[in-house]
Amino acid sequence: MIDSNRQKILDEIQRHIKALTRGIYALVIGVATLIYYLLNPSILNVDVQSKESVVVAEAPLPEYENGIHLATGFKEGENLNLVIANCTSCHSAKMVTQNRATRDGWKTMIKWMQETQNLWELGESEPLILDYLAKYYAPEKAGRRQPLTDIDWYELED
């Protein structure tokens, strides 16, 4: 009886080992496939064209309208593509366009993002990005309106 129980336990262990081995093989094949895909992402690009495909020619959409880059809302200007590449890879362009700062203010924001938000070192691009931001997103002069002049004021009666 002890031998039959021992044999049952051994059979059960062997069954679990086989299942575990199959699972490990499947995991290894899956990881290998994932690594291969990450190294060669174009393997999934299937370029199938219908024999009767119809090409409709449309006028290209304007990239800018009234000096505004339509895709981002940034003002058209020198180094814009550099700003788009470095700023919008982490956050919306609105995070830039809703702010105003001096060159030093923008530099402080960049340093803060590098220290706390994992922004990479901008290297030689940093002064060019700062040039763009300081020119197009500088503080706007705002404040109270000028006092009214040449007005005949009168007293209100209770």
Order of secondary-structure elements: HEEHHHH
- Oligomeric state of this protein: single chain
Please tell me what the overall shape is.
elongated
What fraction, in percent, of the residue positions are helical?
Answer: 40-55%
* Number of helical segments with 4 or more residues: 5
Low-confidence stretches: none
Distance between the termini: 112 Å
Largest beta-sheet details: 2 strands, antiparallel
Count of distinct structural domains = 2
Structure description:
The protein is mostly helical and 158 residues long. It has 2 domains: 41 residues; 73 residues. The chain has 5 helices and 2 strands, in the order αββαααα. The protein has a two-stranded antiparallel ribbon with strand order 1-2. The protein is elongated and about 115 Å long. The N and C termini lie far apart (112 Å). The mean pLDDT is 85.
